[in-house]
Design a protein that fits this description.
- The complex is a heterodimer of chains A (about 700) and B (about 400).
- Chain A is of the alpha/beta class and about 700 residues long.
- Helix content of chain A is about 30%, strand content about 20%.
- In chain B, helix 2 crosses helix 8 and helix 3 crosses helix 4.
- With about 400 residues, chain B is an alpha/beta fold.
- In chain B, the strands form 2 sheets. Chain B has an 8-stranded mixed beta sheet. A 3-stranded antiparallel beta sheet of chain B has the order 6-7-8.
- The chains are: A alpha/beta (about 700), B alpha/beta (about 400).
């Protein structure tokens, strides 16, 4: 018998927990704590405890599949590669689009980016970061010059005041939630604003239920109260920021008085006053936010308002403070860092910057050049172009994404993907998206590969291979490299292993320049920026100065704007969506994990008891939820834990998919869709 | 010929093994002999992972690899018992040697009572243990209290009431455990309360306490605790892998004193910890409030050496509604009801809890109360726990026959 532990990092959320995979006779059979991890000290959430359960599922894809006469037929890798290469070559560069993946490694995201821009010479590459923190990347870059979480997970425990806004940390980033608990045990005050009384809200000293989409009003109101009382950090504002007067002009307006903000948000004025006093006078103060802030048509405005209040109170560049944008997926930070975005190469080097463009073109050495130095389409825009401008985009290569569940307005997504002439999907399971593909390629899962991933706190950590992929499945980097070779670019994809790819990334990326596998193999690993091999990494950003060229943080005057779609007589409720502790995004992994599936086998819609009574709806009754985009039948969960007038659906479940209902209205800058607020009506289902 | 109760000083015959191992490398030599002689098919031991704060269990069938497990790691807070059940089929078809701390040994006994581990196939080399320190906390402690970069530490030990580190520059630094623990560092709280310092329910009990004179630091004190242990010791000596001499009587006395003072310290911590929990309603209130942040990660169940049910009651929808966060209090009540008579205070349910709920403290407090009531001490022998003595069907019959409302009437 052979038994070994393989220490690796979790494939689910962006916290970056580690655990051991237990490998018995070459197969992953369990997980065990890895207590040496500085991030989670051996502790994990239920998804981590049972992260082995889906790995050897009989549903895993084991052979390439080619669709013939509407049915998938098993093929050899050569047959699949030949077909894909021949098809891909037949399209003009900008007729091709790639969707990279926040689920795979940095190395593989880098390769997909290189493939799209170098092999296909297309401008169009994006991934699901568009759907989660695009607003953070854009908003924080505008305010601070760097679009990432400013502090580290560990120093959240040192905070004296934690304001949780638009994050259900205990369920979505449970081991960051633990840091809130630790801070609280150490005397910190916790404030939480959320339409739902979540497990995170239960930790709060002050819980304020508020109407989804009124974040800017709330933050402006808090800032007005802080300024009125003189709680702002005058020295910080003076020395480290600019445009304070512009901010002041807006937030001091009568619109943002306690009374008016109370009307807009639904929070009693005295609670807002109390929150302002706690947050304005207790230092250091951290803000934790997530999708509740970003997934709005005003996502960037929300993010900039969070940045504003933290600059106003001087809560930046120190332990226990900061703008803690909690990134959703295991490697969504890394996928962004690797340039799997339509506007940047690695390390946020702009595609339209001639110097950066030349740097990558020269380093890669494609004899026939790379994509034009122009921005490409965001995934949400790709879908619109596909439906609204037929023939502009013709083929797509999707790696490890399932937009048929994860993207807003699924009927629209289906229409878009069906408009493609040729679709290749690379995944570990057959998904709602790969069903639509012409070719499906079987990939390795997290337990079957090495490589690095970058957690929400910019910590770059290792994955370690525990078992071989099933059947003929291959690691994504191998597939991309072999496909590139088939298309005549073997010289540009000569890799023998992940480490060679990482070294190329480090070479081209200033913030990763000082990293290598030897350093990353240490349990502490490294936080970027890490510019040299001697550099210890940077857990806390903006310590002395911000990342703008002049080192100054910029206040942005932001006016509150309502969501794109607000309740009316026909659709009288606000629908908001989110994930739950037990499942991961589109459910392909967690719904195949027996323990997780038995906890929560399907979705629901949360309805306040008063609303349910008015609608004549009982708990657990199947109801019909309808928006302007579509209709789903879904079980009702009648609960006082959601405020009146607001309804909530988890989005993991294909059979009652929340995203059939959501609105593809986009933030004008970040192009992030408004998952967190649209207008819905809910009806009893009566027999016809 | 060695016999149960014998006490010897032992050390490895091989110089390299002496060097690598702790106190003369006797345990390494014993494990090597167990494997090479065919007494066991494999050794389950702990080796150093990334650094000395990282303990990794390893299953060894090649005797040459045993060297990797030499030396002690006080920041390894693993429990090996459950691994034997979970991943080695409870040693049903395989004979294994396992170096065990008190909690490992107690866990193995409890699993054996429940037919989850075949103790006949397990050779337990007991290790004296004064407690262990969680790795991340240990690093913090070394940085904060010792003022030393934890990456520069090449050795740590717990000796004479001190936590001692040696840096790569050869500098020794020790701070008393009391002082460290006063400051919130030091041993895990379950270790502080532990009173299983010399695991005599193992086949051999090994440690450095009581090794005096020229053998101090160069030999291991071995107490023979079973016939199996005697055979191993004899075999290793006969094969030339191990050398022994009779333990110095003064050393035996000193060992007894060390053990006693550790037990007293354990009592002191118990009194302190349990008192702080309060009693009755106050205690219940505390437990309900602390468990109120549970996210049902199941770490307490998955890592518990008492939990073994294929169909866990906490997963029965009519007892605990699935999917709720936090789970209903019944989730925790089921654990208290099922475990507390047999809790061995291994600490895993607390150390692995995602929300830092002091689960081990609650369970251990209940266990000591039950031990007082029923006189049952878990983990020391094969005596069955209180609840296991009750046949549910028979109890239900009795209830219906007598009209009693006392389920499991243990007071009869």
């Amino acid at each position: 018998m052979d038994l070994k532990y393989v220490q690796t990092t979790c494939p689910y959320c962006g916290t970056g927990c580690s655990f051991n995979l237990v490998v018995k006779d070459g197969k992953v059979v369990g997980t065990q704590p890895y207590k040496r991890s500085p991030v989670n000290e051996g502790k994990v959430c239920p998804k981590g405890t049972y992260a082995h359960e889906f790995v050897n599922s009989p549903d895993r894809l084991t052979k390439p599949l080619i669709k013939k006469d509407g049915k998938f037929v098993e093929a050899t890798w050569d047959e699949a590669y030949d077909l894909i290469a021949q098809k891909f070559k037949s399209y003009k560069p900008d007729e091709f689009a790639a969707l990279s993946s926040a689920r795979v490694s940095n190395e593989e995201n880098y390769l997909m980016m290189k493939f799209a821009r170098g092999v296909m010479k297309s401008r169009h590459i994006d991934h699901c970061a568009r759907l989660c923190h695009a607003s953070t990347v854009a908003g924080l870059a505008a305010s601070f010059g760097s679009g990432a979480m400013t502090n580290s997970i560990l120093d959240i425990a040192e905070s004296k005041c934690i304001f949780v806004l638009g994050s259900n940390t205990l369920e979505q980033h449970p081991l960051i939630g633990r840091k809130i608990v630790q801070a609280k045990q150490d005397g910190a005050k916790v404030i939480c604003a959320d339409p739902r009384y979540t497990p995170t809200a239960r930790l709060a000293d002050l819980y304020m239920p508020f109407v989804s989409g009124t974040d800017v009003a709330l933050l402006n109101g808090l800032m007005q109260e802080i300024i009125k009382n003189g709680w702002e950090d005058k020295e910080f504002i003076e020395k480290r920021t600019k445009d304070y007067e512009k901010l002041k002009e807006v937030v001091m307006k009568e619109d943002y008085s306690l009374e008016n903000v109370s009307k807009v948000t639904g929070i009693p004025a005295d609670q807002i006053k109390q929150a302002a006093e706690i947050f304005g006078t207790t230092k250091p103060g951290a803000i934790l936010y997530s999708m509740g802030i970003t997934q709005h048509t005003v996502g960037v405005d929300n993010v900039r308002s969070v940045a504003n209040i933290q600059m106003l109170t001087g809560n930046l560049g120190k332990p226990g403070a900061g703008v803690n944008a909690l990134r959703g997926q295991n490697n969504v930070q890394g996928a962004c860092d690797m340039g799997a975005l339509p506007v940047v190469f690695t390390g946020y080097q702009k595609v339209i910057d001639p110097a950066a463009h030349k740097k990558f073109a020269d380093a890669w050495g494609f004899p026939d050049g790379i994509c034009e130095p122009k921005n490409g389409y965001e995934v949400t825009v790709m879908m619109d172009v596909l439906t609204d401008n037929p023939g502009e985009l013709k083929c797509m290569y999707i790696m490890g994404e399932n937009p048929m569940i994860s993207d807003p307005d699924i009927n629209h997504v289906r229409h878009a993907l069906e408009s493609l002439e040729f679709l290749v999907v690379q995944d570990i399971f057959m998904t709602e998206t790969s069903e639509l593909a012409d070719v499906v390629l079987p990939a390795a899962c997290y337990a079957e590969r090495d490589g690095t991933q970058t957690s929400t706190e910019r910590r770059v950590q290792m994955w370690r291979k525990a078992q071989d992929p099933p059947g003929e499945a291959k690691e994504d980097w191998q597939i991309i490299s072999e496909l590139a070779a088939k298309m005549g670019y073997a010289d540009q994809f000569p890799y023998q292993n992940m480490e060679e790819i990482f070294n190329e990334v480090a070479e081209l990326t200033p913030s990763y320049h000082g990293m290598n596998y030897e350093r990353l193999n240490k349990p502490e690993a490294l936080h970027w920026p890490c510019p040299t091999v001697e550099h210890p990494g940077t857990p806390i950003l903006h310590k002395e100065k911000f990342s703008h060229p002049d080192g100054i943080g910029i206040f942005a005057p932001i006016e509150w704007k309502p969501p794109a779609e607000v309740p009316d007589a026909e659709y009288p409720f606000v629908l908001t969506t989110g994930r739950i502790l037990w499942h991961w995004h589109t459910g392909t992994m967690t719904r195949r994990s027996a323990t997780l599936d038995s906890e929560v086998p399907t979705g629901w819609i949360e309805i306040n008891p008063d609303d349910a009574k008015a609608l004549g709806i009982q708990n657990k009754e199947m109801v019909r939820a309808t928006t302007r985009r579509g209709t789903v039948n879904v079980p009702a969960k009648v609960t006082p834990d959601i405020m009146k007038g607001v309804m909530f659906m988890p989005f993991h479940f294909a059979e009652c998919a929340a995203n059939i209902l959501t609105n593809n209205a986009l933030d004008p800058i970040a192009k992030i869709p408004e998952f967190k607020a649209c207008a819905v009506k809910v009806e009893k289902i009566t027999e016809a | 010929m060695a016999a149960k109760g014998d006490m010897v000083y032992a050390w490895a015959a091989d110089a390299a093994c002496q060097e690598r191992g702790e106190c003369g490398g006797a345990v390494t030599a014993l494990l090597t002999h167990a494997l090479t002689s065919g007494m066991v098919d494999a050794v389950l031991a702990v080796k150093k992972g990334q650094d000395l704060y990282d303990a990794v269990p390893t299953l060894i069938t090649n005797p040459e690899e045993i060297a990797e497990t030499s030396g002690s790691l006080h920041c390894g807070t693993l429990l090996l018992s459950k691994l034997v059940k979970e991943y080695l089929d409870g040693a049903k078809d395989m004979r294994i040697a396992v170096p065990v701390k008190g909690c490992d040994a107690m866990g193995l006994y409890e699993l054996a009572k429940r037919n989850q581990v075949n103790l006949d196939n397990v050779l337990m080399i007991g290790l004296n243990c004064g407690g262990s320190v969680s790795p991340v906390l240990a690093r913090e402690m070394i940085a904060e209290k010792f003022g030393v970069d934890p990456d520069t530490v090449v050795k740590e030990e717990i000796d004479k009431g001190q936590f001692i580190i040696v840096t790569k520059d050869g500098e020794h630094k020790g701070i008393s455990m009391d002082e460290l623990e006063e400051a919130g560092f030091g041993r895990r709280s379950n270790c502080r309360r532990c009173k299983m310092k010399i695991p005599r329910q193992a086949d051999l009990a090994c440690g450095n306490w009581g090794v005096i004179g020229d053998k101090a630091g160069n030999a291991t004190f071995v107490e023979v605790c079973s016939e199996k242990g005697a055979n191993l010791l004899d075999g290793a000596v006969k094969a030339g892998g191990l050398k022994t001499e009779a333990a110095n009587p003064k050393g035996i006395e000193i060992r007894g004193k060390v053990e006693n003072s550790m037990l007293k310290l354990g009592d002191k911590w118990r009194a302190k910890d349990f008192e702080a929990l309060g009693e009755g309603k106050e205690r219940l209130q505390k437990i309900m409030s602390e468990t109120g942040r549970c996210i049902k990660c199941y770490a307490c169940i998955e890592n518990c050496p008492i939990c073994y049910c294929v169909e866990c009651s906490t997963k029965k929808p009519y007892l605990v509604e699935p999917g709720q966060v936090p789970p209903p209090f019944m989730f925790h009540l089921i654990r208290y009801a099922h475990i507390s008579d047999s809790c061995v205070n291994c600490g895993q349910c607390e150390e692995n809890c995602a929300m830092d709920i002091p689960n081990a403290l609650f369970m251990h407090a209940l266990q000591t109360d039950m031990e007082k009531m029923f006189g049952h001490t878990p983990g020391v022998d094969m005596e069955l726990p209180v609840l296991a003595l009750v046949e549910e069907q028979a109890e239900r019959q009795r209830l219906s026959d007598t009209g009693s409302d006392q389920i499991f009437d243990v007071f009869k």
